[in-house]
Structure formats: structure tokens, C-alpha cells
Amino acid sequence: MTEEFHRIRRLPPYVFAEVNKAKAAARARGEDIIDLGMGNPDSPTPPHIVKKLIETVADPRSHRYSVSRGIPGLRKALAGYYERRFNVKLDPETEVIATLGSKEGLANLASAITSPGDTILVPNPSYPIHQFGFIIAGASVRSIPAYPDENMLRALERAVRHSVPKPTALIVNFPSNPTAYVADLDFYKEIVAFCRKEEIFILSDLAYAEIYFGDVVPPSILAVPGAKDIAVEFTSLSKTYSMAGWRMGFAAGNPQLIAALTRIKSYLDYGAFTPIQVAAVAALSGPQDCVAEIRALYKERRDVLLRGLQGSGWDIPPPEGSMFAWAPIPEAFRDMGSVAFSKLLLQEAGVAVAPGLGFGEHGEGHVRIGLVENTQRLRQATRAIRGFLSAHGINPTQAPPAPQRQSAMEDSIS
User: Fold this and answer.
1) How far apart (Å, rounded) are the C-alpha atoms in residues 85 and 128?
2) Judging by DSSP bridges, how do beta strands 324-328 and 366-370 pair with one another?
3) For residue 230, what are the CA distances in angstroms to 159, 164, 203, 225?
4) Which end of the chain is more exposed for a tag (fewer CB within 10 A), N or C?
5) What's the Cα-to-Cα distance from 123 to each of 127, 266, 363, rounded to whole Å?
6) For 131-135, which contacts have Cβ atoms below 8 Å and span 24 or more sequence positions?
7) How many domains does the chain contain in total?
8) Are the C-beta atoms of residues 277 and 98 closer than 8 Å to each other?
9) To 10 degrees, the CA torsion angle through 352, 356, 359, 360?
10) φ, ψ of residue 87 in degrees (nearest 5)
11) What is the average pLDDT across 201-224?
12) What is the required cofactor set for this protein (predicted)?
């Protein structure tokens, strides 16, 4: 029995594996690797959240099975957050469910609503679960441009005209991982109007809602009138409160989609450990100064990275949101591709980044740089990168202007 299982056959080799293998080998040799490849927050969870966890876990009654869709207080706390932050009213009973991080929620909703052969519209490049959650569930994925503008809207219209069967769902993710693109409410209004007309569900990934640096404060798609008729939105405490390992997220919005996710999760899990859910209530309902502090931390790191590489021959567009910079590979290395470039940067500069190909074929030509080290380490990384570029004869006069939006390649996606 050597034949690979059907769903496994639909998953390509893990693009990041080559870089991860090289990174592990370098560390085994005792080399100091500055790892900017994984979006793993390095700052501690705020103390008042940790305190509530410890307080709750001391009660042995909290050690029992929990509630798959989230304890009532947690669902109410998420509804309270949405009302304060987005002026969106949610029914905690029918329009909110707790998930084990947004990734688990997206994957399980894909399983709940997808039939084999369904067509799903996914930005390319995008976070892998946006595409592969539906591929695992048996769907076919059609790529659309990742930048929130007219090109994406025109691609949606072409997809409806030319896809068989007609698309059943659209994924959006702003602020985006990996591209750091940010959308405003006017763009969401156009997306909602189109999808309501065509009866297409929208799954919005808003995991980076509180990590923003520019003039656009990321809105919720649920703030658009009528959005709850077709849309569900995933949020997470991972980045907002530096709680990545706690695995605490949410889905909110359309009652039909929430009910589908609730039902399938009831067969799969008993929910997050109760003390984690109670601590999550403390995060959402307690002091919010920590959110602004975490946002300021990532902005400072972003600025250190950009200043450190300024004039090096590698111009990187300033990200307006998320904890990543989406960096076009310097022209001199463009032909080798993102995987080979990432391995070369690791080997010669001791800096690990994520190859853009891992986020979809239209991520090729870029790498994702995570703002996941302190400013001292980031300065060390930029010095090493400048030395690496100089050793290859790269100087500012050879650097082409960095693109400020999606590439011509993305414009061509249909």
C-alpha cells in the first residue's frame, strides 16, 4: 500500500521546508541565526492576562471539558469588542463562536461548507490556509489579485462569468499576511455589494486588525450594512495581545455560517482549555493600553528595519499594517527565485526570511520579513544584509524603485 492518500496528494511539498532545514543545520553548527521568517510574536503576553490564567487554573473545576463554541462570557466579550471597536452589534448566541485560533476556524468552516468541486476565490499571494483549507476540503481554488483595488473587483466579475461551477465563497484578508496590504471600508462596501448580488459568501480574516501604522485604521467588513447576510469574519488574540501559543480566536457574523462551524466543531473538539478562555475575557474586557503598546512596538521595529536598509540597494515598501514587510527581491537575485535567495541570505548573512513562493505562485519574486526580533537584533540583521548586498556588488545606484502596490503579474491574475 504505497499509494499516497487522496487529500495528501493535493498538497504540494512544503515550500518553507528547505529554508527551515537549512536554518536548523546552521544552528546545529553553532551559528547565530536571526530568524525573521516565522510570524511568531516574541514579546510576552500582558501580565493581567497571565494573572487571570493562573488564578483560574488554580480552581480544579476549570480542569474539566470546556465548551466547544466558547464559554458564554467569552462570546459576550467578543461582541463587546466588536461594538466598541467597529460599532458592530453581534448576538453572542447566534453570531459568535470561539475557535482554536483563526487558522483552525477557517479550516473547519471550509470543511463545513465545501462540496467536492466547489470553486473558491482566494487572493494570490495569501496565507496558506486560505487556499489549502479549501483544497483539503475538496474545492478548486481560483486565484485573484491580492491588492484591494479595481483589479481585484474586475477579477471577481471575470470569475463569476467564467468559473464552472460559479464561486461559492471569497476569502479576503486585510491587513494582509504576507503582503501587509490594508483595505478601507469603501472597498469592503464594493465587495459586499458584489457578493450579495452574486450570492457568494465572504470569509474575512482580520487577525491583524490592531497592528496598523498608517492613516487607515483597519475596519471590519461586518460594519458594512447587509454584510452579515453573507459574511463571517475571523479574528485572533495571537498578535493583538501576543498570545500566539494560547490558540484563541473567533468567528463572527452570518448566523448560517456560524451555525455550520458550531456544528462541525461539536464533533471535533471541546473548545480551548477553560482557563485560557477566561483569560481571553480578561484580554478583551480589561485594560487596553497593552494593545497600543504592542502596536507601537511593531511600528518601531518596522522603522528600524526600513532605516537600516535605506541606501543599501534593497528598497522595501513601508508596510501599513501587520507584523511583516513584503520585500521585492533585489534585481540582481530575482532570477534565482525566492527559495534560493532565502537560502543564500541565510547562508551568507545569517538572516532567515520566508520565501514568497510559499504564499502562492504570485508571491514569487518577494520574501516576507517578520518584525519578530527586538530592535537590537533587527539592527544586527540590517547590518548583515547590507554586508551581504555589498559583497555581491549591490549598491544604491543599482537598485530599481520598489513597487508601492501589486506587480504587473498580479494584475494578470484572473
Assistant:
1) 28
2) antiparallel
3) 18, 21, 9, 11
4) N
5) 9, 30, 11
6) 131/360, 132/11, 133/106, 133/107, 134/110, 134/169, 135/10, 135/11
7) 2
8) yes
9) -150
10) 60, 40
11) 96
12) pyridoxal 5'-phosphate
- In angstroms, the CA 56 to CA 162 distance is 54
**Cα dihedral sign for 90, 227, 203, 182?**
negative
Average pLDDT of the residues in 266-278: 94
Confidence of residue 20 (pLDDT cuts 50, 70, 90): confident
User: What does the alpha-carbon distance between residue 96 and residue 313 come to, in Å, rounded to a whole number?
Assistant: 47
d(CA 381, CA 351): 6
CA distance linking residue 326 with residue 369, whole number of Å = 7
Amino acid residing at 318: P
**Position 324 in a domain:** yes
pLDDT at residue 44, rounded to an integer: 96
Burial tier of 80 (Cβ tally within 10 Å: 0-12, 13-18, 19+): middle
Of the three residues 285, 301, 321, the one that is the final residue of a domain is: 285
Cell of 61: 473545576
Grid cell 456560524 is found at: 258
From the list 343, 298, 304, 345, the residue with the least C-alpha distance to 321 is 298
Domain boundary among 251, 285, 319: 285
Domain of 157 in residue numbering reads as 47-285
